[in-house]
Amino acid sequence: MEFPICAQHNEEFGYFCEKCDEPTCKVCIFTLHKGHNMSDLSETVAKKKKELSSTWEVYLRKLEGARKSVDNMENSLHTYRKKVYNTIKEIESEGEKLRNIIDKTVSDMAKELREKEAEEMKRVTQVINGLKSQLERGIQLERHINKALKLKDDTSMLISLKKFQEDMASYIPEVILPCEFSYLKGNAGSAHVHSMLGRIFFENDKSGRETPLEAKDDFNRNARKYELWACPLCNTERYIDRMDESERSFKTPRCCYGFMQSRGIAYK
C-alpha cells in the first residue's frame, strides 16, 4: 500500500502517531513526534477501517430504526387523527341525542303546562260564569223584593216573600282560584352535560392538559372530588373519594391480580 509523501521531509508516511492521531514519516518520529507512541501505518489503517465499518453498521441499524420509527409515528398519527375524527362524530351524535331529548322534554313540559292551563281556565271560567249568573239573578231578586214589600195585600206579600226565600237559598258557586304551581330549576351546569356526554381521557399527555377533561363551573365547586381508577385488563372503573387530599392511608386499588391505573380527577 502506497501512502502520500511527508511534505516537510519528502519521505513516505510509514507510521502513525497515537498521541497526535496523524501519520508520520521515518524522520518525523525523531523530530516532531519524538518520544510518542508509534504504530505501523498499514496496520493502523486496517484497524481504523474495521472500526469505521463496525461503527457504520451500528449507525445503519440506527438509521433503519429511525425509518421504522418515522413509519410507526406517521401511521400512529394517521390512526390518531382518524380516532379524533370518529370520536368527535360520536360526541356530536351524543350531543344531537341530548338536544333531541332536551327539546322533547321542554316540549312535553310546555304541553303539560298548557293542558293544565286549559283545564284550569275551563274550571274557573265555569265558576265565574255561574257567579255572574247569580249576580244577575240577585239584582232581579232585589227589584222583586222591593216591589213585593210595597204590596198592600199581606197574603200576596207572604207568598212572594216565601218564593224569594227559596230563590235566595239557591246554590251560589264557591269562589275558587287556579291551582298554584311552581317551577324548580334544574342544576343544568356544564359538568352535568359532561357527565351525560361522557369523558375524554388523555393518557401519557405531555401538553399539561388536565385528565380527564373537566368543566369548570359552579357545580364543580360544590361537587365532591373523586379520582377515577380503571383496570387495564377488564376496564372496570372505580371512583375513589379524594376530597381529603391530606389522606396518607390511601392505597392503590387492585383488580385482576394487579394494580388499577389512575385516569384522573372527576366530579360527581
Automatic annotation (TrEMBL):
InterPro entries with a match to the protein in the record: TRIM/RBCC, Znf_B-box
Key word Glycoprotein present: no
GO MF, one annotated term: zinc ion binding
Keywords: Metal-binding, Zinc, Zinc-finger
Domain of life: Eukaryota
Pfam families assigned: zf-B_box (PF00643)
Domain B box-type: 1-41
Identification of the protein by name: B box-type domain-containing protein
Organism: Mytilus galloprovincialis
